[in-house]
Amino acid sequence: MSTKPLAGIRVLELGQLMAGPFAGTLLAYFGAEVIKVEPPGQGDPVRGWRLLDDSGTSMWWYTLGRNKKCITLDLRTDEGRRLARQLADHVDVLIENFRPGTMERWGLGPDEIARTNPEMIYSRISGYGQDGPYASRPGYASVCEGVGGMRHVTGFPGGPPVRSNLSLGDSLAALHAAFGIVLALYHRDRVTGDDDGNARPRKGQVVDTAIYEAVFNMMEAVVPEFDRAGAVREPSGSTITGIVPTNTYPTVDGRWVIIGGNGDSIFQRLMRAIGRDELAEDSRLAHNPGRVTHQAEVDQAIADWTSQHSVEAVLAAMETARVPAGPINSVADMMNDPHFQARGLFEEVDAGGKPLKIPAILPKLTETPGGTDWAGPPVGAHTQEVFRQWLDLSDEQISDLRERGVI
Q1: For residues 37 and 377, what is the distance between their CA atoms, to the nearest angstrom?
Q2: What is the CATH number of domain 246-250+256-327?
Q3: Which residues touch 2 (CB under 8 Å, ≥6 apart)?
Q4: Residue from 170, 264, 304, 392 carrying the catalytic annotation
Q5: Quick one: the chain helix, strand, coil %, rounded to 5?
């Protein structure tokens, strides 16, 4: 069997809900040993969010908690923080997503831990970063998507800003954090000498990820467009500013398709496929700037044609013409799609004694692929194992901690 690429990397995950835990999930999927610390009792609140199964466990938890070893510690107690501090000496990476300053107040900040574990990568995720005038503000993804600029360009002109029915800000922050962690691990483990070839000790560093900055990082050219031309990109509904045609078009069966015909040769093939040869040869529309000027005319021509055909007929015609097009898939559509199946995008796990399909995590690696070894486990499922193996505590000591509510 192939070794997962992060096999041998140990991670201590502190925090809850989405951004920090999803970063831990990404690392665990690709082989890191992730120890997730949760408060005694109900554990991470996400265990009870959204749709629950018969056991009262969120179906989201089974995917977010996959491959993690779950322990409990009451970080509000001195002893709980002391144990967390001891665990931190045994890991390569620590992930936390508390409000800035919290870990320092607990004696678990990066400077404190670096005294005994200078090689550790310390990953911090917060709404606004660890410094700056907004650092102390609470930063949920919904708010940070607005601050980072995404909500301003989302929606229809003249209407209210809208959001995707997903926590995109949290997911983007988790991806950035995981990327930063892997960069820091690479630097620590592979960049071993200075410019003169002298060996240097392995050294960790802090990875500071802000949710609003992860969103800001996705904002393409809005900054140089504003700086050089004074242009403020506005919401554009189902289109994207400055690229034509790429839009969502109605079909005769009451559904919608997406068609992207913005390449010059692709546009000509699209126009011929819909019976508008005169537009394919129109010099005004030969290149994208001209099509942007005449966007309404182009989109109307496409919509007039799609509205006379079913989704299947439209997609078949576009495939024949080699024009990028696709349906608007629901989760039901995706799970029945042969391409999704062929690409292995669903994994089946045991969840509460029953089979459950969860999404695979990408990217696909040919030699060292990731994978789900187990679904999100019950609260404290690995407490005994971790404290025995990592801290050499006896069963009696662990029982005493449990009786006193520390774990």
Answers
A1: 12
A2: 3.30.1540.10
A3: 367, 368, 369
A4: 170
A5: 40, 15, 45
With a CB cutoff of 8 Å and minimum separation 6, the contacts of 341 are none
DSSP 8-class letter at 257: E
Cα dist. 22→32, 186, 296, 371 in Å?
13, 21, 41, 15
Sequence ranges of the domains in the chain = 10-218+344-403, 246-250+256-327
User: Is 53 an annotated catalytic residue?
Assistant: no
Tokens 């299947």 found at: 312
- Residue whose C-alpha is closest to residue 271's, from 289, 254, 284: 284
Question: CA 390, 394, 400, 403 torsion: positive or negative?
Answer: positive
State pLDDT tens for residues 275-320. Answer: 999 999 999 999 999 999 999 999 999 999 999 999 999 999 999 9
Alpha carbons 44 and 37: distance in angstroms, whole number: 9
Tens of pLDDT, residue by residue over 230-262, are 999 999 999 999 999 999 999 999 999 999 999
% of the chain at pLDDT higher than 70: 98
Write the CATH number of the domain with boundaries 10-218+344-403.
Answer: 3.40.50.10540
How many Å apart are CA 154 and CA 164, to the nearest integer?
9
Angle 210-123-190 from CA coordinates, rounded to 5°: 120
- Whether the domain at 10-218+344-403 and the domain at 246-250+256-327 fall into the same CATH topology: no
